[in-house]
């Protein structure tokens, strides 16, 4: 799950707290990545307690996003650089 900390309506901190505390959330995200320009010490210290796995400080590159998502280097076809659509393999 990708979350911005500063969003209109509900901020990312509130969303993270809801995900952590809501017993009705059956499909909790396996990975939580926060994207934010807030990189101060207090913010960084709070995020692990809210279930955040990693932080992408803004601005970030597509390469940094792909690496944070565990997708490897850019290039290739689709989400996984080693995969090709079935119609192309034969």
| Structural classification | alpha/beta
Low-confidence stretches: 76-90
Question: What fraction of the residues are assigned to beta strands by DSSP?
Answer: 5-15%
Helix content: 25-40%
Describe the structure.
This protein has a three-stranded parallel sheet with strand order 1-2-3, covered by helices on one side. The protein is globular and about 35 Å long. β1, α1 and β2 form a beta-alpha-beta unit. The chain is built from three helices and three strands; from the N terminus they run βαβαβα.
Note the topology.
Layout lengths: L1 E3 L7 H10 L11 E4 L4 H6 L7 E4 L4 H7 L22
Parallel strand pairs: 1-2, 2-3
Short structural description:
With 90 residues, the chain is of the alpha/beta class.
Entry keywords:
3 helices, 26% helix, 90 residues, disordered C terminus, 3 strands, alpha/beta
């Amino acid at each position: 799950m990708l979350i911005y900390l500063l969003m209109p309506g509900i901020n990312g901190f509130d969303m993270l707290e809801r995900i952590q505390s809501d017993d009705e959330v059956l499909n909790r995200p396996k990975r939580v990545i926060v994207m934010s320009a807030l990189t101060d010490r207090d913010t960084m210290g709070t995020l692990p307690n809210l279930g955040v796995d990693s932080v992408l400080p803004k601005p970030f590159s597509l390469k940094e996003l792909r690496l944070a998502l565990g997708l490897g280097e850019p290039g290739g076809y689709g989400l996984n650089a080693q995969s090709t659509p079935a119609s192309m393999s034969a």
